[in-house]
Amino acid sequence: MNSIVLAGGKGQRLGRSKLSEIVGNRPLIQRVVDVLGLVSDQVLIVIARGQSEPIISSPVETRITTDLYPGKSALGGIYTGLVSSSSLRNLVVAADMPFLNPSLLSYLMSLSAGFDVVMPALKGEIEPLHAIYSRDCLQPIQDQLEEGRLRIRDLLQRVRVRYVEGDEIEGFDPKHLSFFNINTSNDLRRARSILGEIGES
Questions:
Q1: Beta carbons within 8 Å of 138's beta carbon, 6+ residues apart
Q2: Can you give the pLDDT at residue 200?
Q3: With a threshold of 0.85, does the pTM exceed it?
Q4: Which residue among 133, 144, 173, 189 sits deepest, i.e. has the most Cβ atoms within 10 Å of its Cβ?
């Protein structure tokens, strides 16, 4: 299974690009790719048009592709990644998630047969950028993009979804750190503090 990293965000709330921010002695994007390299055959990084390509080092094949639907939010990025991938099912994550858990990601992958989407859902809150998507989602996503409907929740009404909830998630990640993402300077400070708490510099 391949992984897709959505890295085309503008970092407006942080005021600068998030990808190169150092978290635990590594750029944030490198932290994400390092974990995905443990569970994937290939990592695809989707960036915005005109965006500088991040510098990545990984033992698995890493490719960078440019968003086919610029300005169409995460849904356009997911579409671009799925089009570019050779794998039927793909793990999709955001580039600003410093605490991805390879055991939880592997568990999501193990559930994917027979479903178009496998997605965590905690107390009704879905995690669409920490989920498995099948290439069978391509046509419904394209239909939505062309209609200007960018909500991933709308897509979930049209495909076969396996939600992963509560106890399933907590068996791997009791503090739900997998879903922590960095949008602001406070988030960045908190991420570095968490690393200190768990003993990682």
A1: 79, 82, 83
A2: 73
A3: yes
A4: 133
